[in-house]
Amino acid sequence: MIAVIDTGICNLRSVTKALEAVGASIRVVHSPDEVSAMKASGIVLPGVGALRDCVASLRASKLDAVVRDWIAADRPFLGVCLGMQALFEHSEEGDISGLGIFPGRVVKFQRPREFKVPHMGWNTIRFVQPLSALGSQLSVSGEAFYFVHSYHCVPQDASLVLAECDYGGAFCAAIARGRVFATQFHPEKSQGKGLQIYRNFAAVAA
After folding, report:
1. d(C-alpha 95, C-alpha 78), whole Å
2. In 3-state terms, what secondary structure has residue 16?
3. pLDDT tens digits for 60-98?
4. Whether the model pTM is above 0.85
5. What are phi and psi of 60, to 5 degrees?
6. What local confidence, expressed as pLDDT, does residue 124 receive?
7. Phi, psi (5° rounding) for residue 174?
8. Residue 114 designated active-site
9. So what's the pLDDT on residue 33?
């Protein structure tokens, strides 16, 4: 059973439908008690919009502590878009503190004028951890996923980077450590390849 955290600013329906499409049993949660009661085997943290609102929602519900402890225990976790950005120490978007689970920053794209911001649409990623479970059945050298973001993560520890994408320069498109994963792109908007991401995560959480 996978817990999907509802922060109130996430594309919840798209994420839950994608997980169900790959055969995962899911439950939407709003509190630590719900996570505990359902005996979750994995957590998914989706998010769209402003990071300030996402982090504020997690802190208000006390799910920030659940996420922090869950990741510290190396239990299956998948963050999506803001759910990835929230894991780092600081974001330039609103000059706010994230959950501080991983050292690093979230910074705004600084690109030549021909590269529009937000970075929106399909772009190719390259896996730099070729043996990661999240990339199973996907090409290491190039798969296209759907992005919508103006800010990107800069992990302090380069070994955390799971995949890179080029948009006027390389940036971190996904991270992985143990059974903890997060993607800047939206698997639920990425058709068959995106469903494979969710299928791979569900297998890790099984």
Report:
1. 24
2. helix
3. 999 999 999 999 999 999 999 999 999 999 999 999 999
4. yes
5. -65, -35
6. 98
7. -165, 155
8. no
9. 95
Fold of 2-94+102-205: Rossmann fold (3.40.50)
Peptide bond into 118 cis (omega under 30): yes
Among 70, 65, 51, which Cα is nearest to 9's? 51
DSSP per-residue letters across 87-155: TEEEETTTTEE---SEEEEEEE----TTS-SSEEEEEEEEESSTT-GGGTTS-SS-EEEEEEESEEEEE
Domain boundaries, the chain: 2-94+102-205
Choose the catalytic residue: 10, 54, 81, 165. Answer: 81
Active-site residue flag, 54: no
Of the pLDDT bands very low, low, confident and very high (cuts 50, 70, 90), residue 34 is: very high
